[in-house]
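Its record is set out here:
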Amino acid sequence: MSDMCTSSTLGQLRIDTDGHAATRDISFDGDASIALSTFVIIERRTLLRDCLARSIRSKATHVVSFPSVPDLIANAGGRRAALVVLSIENLSKQEIQRDLSSLRSIAPSTPVAIVAERGDLNDALDAIKMGAKGYISTSMGLDVALEAMQFVSAGGTYLPVECVLAAKQSSGKAAAGDSAGALTSRELAVIQAIRHGRSNKMIAYQLNMCESTVKVHVRHIMKKLRARNRTEVAIRAAEIVNFCD
């Protein structure tokens, strides 16, 4: 890959191919189709910010990144994008609430997905209550995280499955039962494929695993979700990703 950076113009926005703003006068709404495919990353740590930008670029046409919400506000002027991905590592609850409030004030129609190292139920629910539309744990696989971001950008609300199951159990609405264990990132990837109607053979090819391994994952998923067949798995998964109470 060439080290040379090129730039593209989005209305008044110039973005280099590494996802950084090339000018300070940023406008996401110069072209509606571009605005709807732009993901904004907010991560203080440079290495992680760049890695996240490169990973997300496989799912979004344009990616811009900033070290903080104030930097985004100074450069973007509150213009529209498809999704804001906000890393909250080392932020206090008050700082998270402040950042989410600031994002709502400048771009109320743009959904925000939180990225956190802890997949804690209370933290996830607090983030949703404060206005986030997604809570993504760094313990999940990249493919699942990207699918979750796409889901949130399309208008959905996402919580990790283990958080949802714990919430349903604690509220008396457990659809997966008291004995359900947390789903692994690999199982989540299999669930996503099942929701898209893919066969075990197709899933094995997509996830680079043996078909027999896929069958084992499907059995574990059905047990954890108390689903009798693949259709029920898809239904339960749809309930899980839309659960936000």
In short: The chain has two domains: 7-159, 175-242.
